[in-house]
Amino acid sequence: MKPNWQDLMRQATLAQAASLFDAAAVMQRSFSSTASARPAPPSAPPPLEEVVASPQPLVLDVEARVIEPAPSLRARRTRTRPAHVPVRRGPGEFRSGHYTQVSGSREYRLYIPPGAAEAPLPLVVMLHGCVQDPDDFAAGTRMNEVAREHGFYVLYPAQTKNANQSRCWNWFKHNHQQRGRGEPALLAAMTAETMNRYRIDRRRVYIAGLSAGGSMAAIVAHAYPELYAAVGVHSGLPPGSAFDIASGLAAMREGPRPAWHPVLPPTGFMPPSTAVPTIVFHGDRDPMVHPRNADGIIASALGKGGARPGARLEQSGTVGGRRYTRFCYLEADRQHVFAEQWVVHGAGHAWAGGHPHASCTEAHGPDASREMWRFFAEHPRP
């Protein structure tokens, strides 16, 4: 997010008292939309097969290159259009590609680990934050390094400026919050197409993101629980916490108010029985997204009113000079963890344990990438 984000939020908050349209004008540098009318009740969601198969999506790989074990922070290369995709060698590939279907198109980056042709491997979909792109996000989170060590694919969809001026995923717009519509449908279809093109273990497909990307990851996982086995949210907001710019700003500033949304229940878009295992990271000094949103994400995962009767365990410690508190929410059998919430004390709006020279990263504290993968590995789809 931009350095002057707090000032923009403050200006927009003052403006929205007079007019939501004034608030949208103040925020136009950060969001590409204006305040929306309240949505009509959604129709019955289409099955995933319809989203993926009709129309037939087209995927074009336009670049592939060998990468170092850890993502480089060197200046990005100018994209080219080679006709030949080189054979994988060394520590893996980091491919560029373009995905298109009738509802839209997006660029992406795909990390392919060594030995990918030998057996089906897991897939992690990573959604970047505002003003970021896949290269910056991969370098900052170092998720490719984790993928190389543990053997899984990483897909980084890229948001466009045409879709959002600041390249934010549109989590706050009602037409991008439901199954079969907008960006959730596009991301689910892109995930399914990647699963069809590569040797992916379909029981081990996961999605995670930071900030706006984390908010969209929560939405997509709730909307397509048959596709994603677990979700990771870093510094994001729960599904259904906003439906336009004004409610989005308020949720970021104060925490979620599910009553704002007239259509989508605070438990997400599916019954609690279809909620996916969830891991959440959030700094308790986050000036951009209020830490109460992390509580809202956990409440959404557990079900309305804490429907899952399992116990909560608490653990604390210090890593890299940062204290943390970790809450584990057990299944009803009290033996399996369904959700984890990591509170990183003293941290702001940044990916914990990330590369110190990338954007929106905090080099100190627990390694969010490795902890997310550890949680994902413990939660294949039944």
Task: Give a quick set of tags describing it.
single chain; 382 residues; alpha/beta; 2 domains; eleven-stranded mixed beta sheet; two-stranded parallel sheet; 10 helices; 13 strands; hydrolase; hydrolase activity; AB_hydrolase_fold; Plant_Biomass_Hydrol_Est; signal
Helix-strand makeup class: alpha/beta
Q: How many structural domains can be distinguished in the coordinates?
A: 2
How big a fraction of the residues is strand? 15-25%
Output the CATH class name of the largest domain.
Answer: Alpha Beta
Strand order, main sheet: write it out. 1-2-3-5-4-6-7-8-11-10-9
List SSEs in N-to-C order.
HHHEEEEHHEHEHEHEHEEEEEH
Task: Round the mean pLDDT to the nearest integer and report it.
Answer: 78
- CATH fold node name of the largest domain: Rossmann fold
So how many helices? 10
Shape, principal axes of CA atoms: globular
CATH architecture of the largest domain: 3-Layer(aba) Sandwich
Share of helical residues? 25-40%
What is the radius of gyration computed over CA atoms, rounded to a whole number of angstroms?
20 Å
Could you tell me the number of beta strands?
Answer: 13
Low-confidence stretches: 12-89, 259-273
- CATH H-level superfamily title of the largest domain: Alpha/Beta hydrolase fold, catalytic domain
